[in-house]
Amino acid sequence: MSESRVPGTETAGPVVRTASGAVRGRHEDGLAVFRGIPFAEPPVGDARFQAPRPARPWDGTREAYAFGPPPPQEPGIMSRKDVPVPGPTGDDWLTVNVWTPDPDPSSARPVMVWIYGGAFKTGHAGQPGYDAQHIARDGDVVVVTFNYRVGMEGFALLDGAPANRGLLDQLAALEWVRENITAFGGDPGQITVFGESAGAGSVASLMAMERARGLFRRAVAQSVPGTFFSEALARDMAAALAAEAGRRPTAADLATVDPRRLTAAGQSLSARMLGYTDRWGQAAPTMTPFAPVVDGDVLPTTPWQALAAGAARDVDLLVGHNRDEFRLFLAMVGLLDEITEDQLTAALRLLAPGGGAGERAYRAAFPEDTPSDLYERVQTDWLFAMPSLHLAEAQRAGGGRAHVYELAWSAPGSRYLGACHGLDIPLLFGTFRADLGMLLFPGADVPDTAQELSSRFRRSWTAFARTGDPGWPAYDTEERLVQVLDEKPTVTAYPRETSRRIWEGHAFLPLPLLG
Description:
There is one protein chain. The protein is α/β, with parallel strands linked by helices. About 35% of the residues lie in helices and about 15% in strands. The protein contains 17 helices and 14 strands. The strands form two sheets. The protein has an eleven-stranded mixed β-sheet with strand order 3-4-6-8-7-9-10-11-12-13-14, with helices on both faces. Strand 9 (about 185-195), helix 4 (about 200-210) and strand 10 (about 220) form a beta-alpha-beta unit.
């Protein structure tokens, strides 16, 4: 096979033999990089809406130069809504990518496996913001990213199809890693899963799943969402989604619709979900009809219940959130500093624990907050901060170990966004000129403080992957010490203590169907 020179690469790309066949990658700036390796068959035809099937073997050497095509999805938050998701096309959605300092089986480096976010309806491993070169190079680790099905393909609860197909894709990818990563220079006994937002919800789900036992040793969950659906709620949402497409909520009926057309059904329903508040309750304002379903099989219970019962006591956990998570979403809809008293009251009564009691607790605890400030605070607490903290507390209650952090450094792109949702991604990956990084880090130069914090993220995350210790004390329920990542990082008592007290004793259960 001939090789051609491309910028940043050497000739004679490295060849690795996987269980399905040989793949040839590229040498890129001191790393060997492999892209678009199938870990499962394309989930189309009679495989549509089914559990992933192992990739078929191939003869010869397969070029692993380009990312596989994204799974069908609606545009992400950084995309124009009238422009399709760019990138390769085709049905081979289920692929993995590997960055390794040295594809030598004797290297036995720690392995970090990234799971992307995107509200369980968008995202793919080929996004420029997930270029893992800095993590692999700075931490001397092997990094794997992969695609999994999102939206209706991955998470709609349909008759004739297994629940949580997106989670089953993740299991299949982790099984591929266990079987093949030695050949890429990784240690299958030193695997860490890490993810953000929906990716963190996926990490938490995997920790709760019996089928995932033994597939990873450590887990990093960045901004865990508290939204897990009951079976009744998921079925009701699936019926509404199918109706948008003029079909019934069955795998057989929806399989007649092109996967790329189905994304419009999710997009249409998401835009109208607030109108379902009386029926879907707290799920309605999330604007996504997709989330892991507590179906009793693939996902037997919520992560908080599972971890408290000891389901992941042998898995080291690093978990945390950003200080101003919800500011990003308010900015997206033009409501920063525009929340009315009526909107605040409705949010407090819907989201705060105990309804009216929770509303009174928030108002009494934060009397100086404006309606916009208090609205953002309760939204951040409910959706990300308290689920993340409670996951650490559940892990400790179940006999496991957890380290907790809060990102408090404000994005330089806007004084209004603060430490908003997603800021940790460009900091961790060092991808300041891609995806959300373009919004949060505008201008020609990235501040030195951002570069320093970015390096600290990678040092801490890769140290955790190697040793289980990110560089600060484990969390306990007496001192409650956490790492606050700011211009001058410090270890201190949990900074949202007032919110923690309001939410103390709250159980994160599957969101119910109300009507």
